[in-house]
Design a protein that fits this description.
Number of helices: 3
Strand order of the largest sheet: 5-1-2-3-4-6
Distance between the termini: 108 Å
Structural class: alpha+beta
Order of helices and strands: HEEEEEEHH
């Protein structure tokens, strides 16, 4: 009888205070078994294949020529004097610029936020060191969910407002830069 009374008192205390239970189901992280593996919320990862080719070429040629002349004659009696002024100028100029670049990389980025239209704002960085040369690729932009393939991959050409930065640091990169004194002479015009 004592055991039944204690058990009843414990049951009554649990009912009066309300049993606090937590569900194993979380709506914000739930994904169905048949759902695809595409990134769709903040914190999801997404693989980006960077295939960027750019080239630019410009050229200009300029040629100007100006010749001005003024001649005159003054006569006074039997004497005559001639007066003449001539001005001339010539300018030839030209220039050409050509640049080409190519970047191929694959990196995984993280969805930073889901924008009101459903687009995903992404950002990520990849650091790679080869022969003591550090190479860093940083990518930011906005992706439409329809541009993400079934393998959770998106092409860099399908990223809006893309900012792709590729920077190398090390001995080879340092040797390829112009020295400070050469930059100063270029600034002065030598």
């Amino acid at each position: 009888m004592k055991v039944a009374f204690i058990l009843l008192a414990c049951l009554q205390a649990a009912v009066l205070q309300g049993a606090a239970a937590q569900s194993l189901f979380r709506e914000e992280t739930w994904r169905g078994l048949t759902a695809d593996n595409k990134a769709f919320r903040a914190g999801d990862v997404l693989t980006v294949q960077v295939f960027e080719n750019s080239s630019a070429s410009t050229s200009a040629e300029t040629g100007t020529r100006r010749v001005n002349g003024l001649t005159g004659e003054v006569r006074y009696g039997s004497r005559s004097s001639q007066l003449g002024i001539g001005v001339g100028s010539e300018f030839d100029g030209g220039g050409a610029t050509q640049r080409a670049s190519r970047l191929l990389a694959t990196l995984t980025v993280v969805v930073q936020e889901v924008l009101p239209g459903g687009q995903l704002r992404i950002a990520g960085t990849q650091d790679l060191t080869v022969n003591d040369e550090s190479q860093k690729v940083r990518l930011e932009g906005v992706v439409r969910p329809v541009d993400i393939t079934d393998g959770n991959v998106v092409q860099s050409t399908r990223i809006a407002d893309a900012r792709i930065t590729y920077v190398g640091e090390g001995d080879i990169t340092e040797r390829s830069r112009r020295s400070w004194w050469r930059q100063l002479l270029d600034l002065v015009g030598f």
